[in-house]
Design a protein that fits this description.
Layout: E1 2-3, H1 13-25, H2 41-50, E2 57-61, E3 64-69, E4 72-75
Antiparallel strand pairs: 1-4, 2-3, 3-4
């Protein structure tokens, strides 16, 4: 996974901004997709804020797989076929 950095869970708009910035950093301009078609960011924030354990939510935006946790937003990179897991 390619981390985009830790996120302060106290500030609500940061998750939306972090998702958009992560997608843009991987070559997907914000005008090329509708994020609300892939995920309800407000519900995702509520889920992460209310969780007492480790929570990971994965979703795909225009063929870019994202993983969102309390620590931030990561892009899930496909491993080449035949690459052993470590």
């Amino acid at each position: 996974m390619a981390p985009s950095g830790p996120r302060n869970s106290d500030t609500s708009p940061n998750l939306l901004v972090e998702i958009v910035e992560t997608l843009e950093a991987h070559g997907l301009p914000s005008e090329s997709y509708q994020l609300h078609d892939a995920v309800d960011v407000e519900a995702l924030e509520q889920l992460l804020a209310s969780s007492t354990g480790n929570v990971e939510v994965r979703f795909t935006v225009e063929e870019i797989q994202l993983s969102v946790t309390q620590d931030g937003v990561d892009v899930i990179l496909d491993e080449p076929a035949g690459t052993p897991n470590q």
